[in-house]
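Hi there, hope your week has been kind to you so far. Do you reckon you could talk me through the fold, stretch by stretch? Thanks so much in advance, here it is.
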Amino acid sequence: MLKDGYTTVLIMTGGVENNDGNLQMNKHNINIKLLGEMMARRMGKTLVAPLVTLEPGNAGPNIQPGRAGPMLSQATYAALLFDMGNYLRSMGFKEVFYMGDSGGNARGMQTAADSLTKLYADSPDRVVFKHIPEFYNHTSVVQPYIQNELKIPEGIKIGASSGTSGLHEELGIDATMALADPQSIRFAQRVKAGQAEINGIKFESLAWLQGLGRKVADLRVTTAINAINAYRATLPK
């Protein structure tokens, strides 16, 4: 595939964290698996590296099972992402794009991309290493889209990570997770318990939620690809 021109690779980072009772703890990993494949197919000549399923965090006495992790230190996390990018370069990839679904991942991705860019700045064999922060767009893109364009009055302030339900959960995330795997949002159990809703929005049906998930996934993928193409346009020919 490399010989056939598949020289762009996506390093997708997720994580395992507390998401209260409705969602599986690996929601970010579910999202990056779904969206990474969608991006690669749409971009063409693009592959997805093995998913980075742990995120950075600090160990300590307050960490309890079900509340976080396991996580990696920032130093280990940045080193892991550096090594992955460096290895992919050695394999023959020419563009390495880092994208993360959790806010705490940005620092390590940026550090790895910047370090690799500096290391190979004088190399005649040019390889692009770039963190694409626009991929992490739950609050900046998805929330305004749901509330302002789709006119769905979700009870969450744009930019916030929790709404009227008081949970670290929102409609756009439920929708993409339902598209990937309805069990990941406990859909059947929530229907049975009369709690198939979030932030004041009732799930009309699984098909309705998955339909919304397709729209949100398409929006997130389009936003990230547009950012990649805008960056590509700045590169020397």
